[in-house]
Specification:
Layout: E1 6-9, E2 13-17, H1 27-31, H2 51-58, E3 66-71
Bound molecules: iron/sulfur cluster (SF4).
Residues 22-28, 61-63, 65-66 line the site of iron/sulfur cluster.
Length: 75
């Protein structure tokens, strides 16, 4: 079965989330609850934090469910 993939963008970067890979560790929403909120739809709101902070949080995902699809120059 193909892995489902969802994309969330803020115009600078796009987060890729693979729900089938997520192990629900909670690290993303414990670390950056304003952006990652599993009770909200869509659960990722890229407008709630600076791009660099979001990238930092995505890197802490232990399963690889979260990743960055594309990254333009961030000043
Ligand atoms: S940090 Fe990664 S594995 Fe953990 S809940 Fe978030 S997306 Fe899922």
């Amino acid at each position: 079965m193909p892995v489902k993939t969802l994309h969330y963008s803020n115009g600078e970067i796009t987060i890729v989330w693979k729900p089938d890979v997520c192990i629900h560790s909670g690290i993303c929403f414990q670390g950056l609850a304003s952006v990652f909120d599993p009770r909200r739809r869509p659960w990722i709101d890229m407008s709630q934090a600076h791009t660099l902070r979001i990238v930092e949080q995505v890197k802490q995902c232990p399963s690889g469910a979260l990743s960055i699809a594309e990254k333009k120059k961030v000043e």
